[in-house]
């Protein structure tokens, strides 16, 4: 699962892939050893040596376990760093999309307003279109009569 995650995240470093393959082989060997111990006798069965990639030197079992644990911790930290970086990239992409959609919405509103103004000006210059109703004025008041 770690190897697939690393590959899906764009990882391609041969040293990391070799370490992940080594970890996978160790995990398989440990699982097989655990299955053998779970039999009726309850006594641990001898474990076959795990296949080692050529880049990893042979070490004593205790040192190898500590080395594997350290390697696993390092891979986990790198995985967390990559997840954080991926999250930051997603947030930046969403912000850009939000900014782009906000700008597009604003431009669409301005365009609609300009189109309405152009239509109103056309109607006004052509003398057609909706006109204001004539104002209803009170009857004119005559000037006062001279004495």
UniProtKB/TrEMBL annotation:
Source organism superkingdom: Eukaryota
Keywords from the named record: Coiled coil
Regions that span the bilayer: none
Region (Disordered): 37-60, 125-147
Bias type Pro residues, positions: 45-56, 131-147
Coiled-coil ranges per UniProt: 65-124
InterPro entries linked to this entry: CCDC17 (IPR038800)
PANTHER family, per database record: COILED-COIL DOMAIN-CONTAINING PROTEIN 17
The protein's name in its UniProt record: CCD17 protein
Gene that encodes it: Ccdc17
């Amino acid at each position: 699962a770690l190897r697939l995650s690393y590959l899906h995240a764009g990882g391609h470093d041969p040293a990391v892939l070799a370490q992940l393959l080594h970890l996978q082989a160790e995990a398989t060997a440990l699982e097989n050893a655990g299955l053998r111990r779970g039999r009726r006798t309850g006594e641990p069965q001898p474990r076959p040596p795990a296949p080692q990639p050529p880049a990893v030197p042979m070490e004593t079992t205790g040192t190898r376990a500590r080395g594997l644990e350290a390697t696993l911790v390092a891979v986990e930290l790198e995985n967390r760093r990559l997840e954080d970086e991926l999250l930051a990239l997603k947030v930046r992409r969403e912000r850009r999309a939000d900014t782009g959609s906000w700008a597009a919405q604003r431009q669409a509103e301005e365009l609609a307003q300009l189109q309405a103004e152009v239509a109103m000006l056309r109607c006004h210059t052509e003398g057609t279109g909706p006109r204001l109703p004539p104002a209803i004025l009170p009857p004119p008041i005559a000037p006062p009569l001279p004495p």
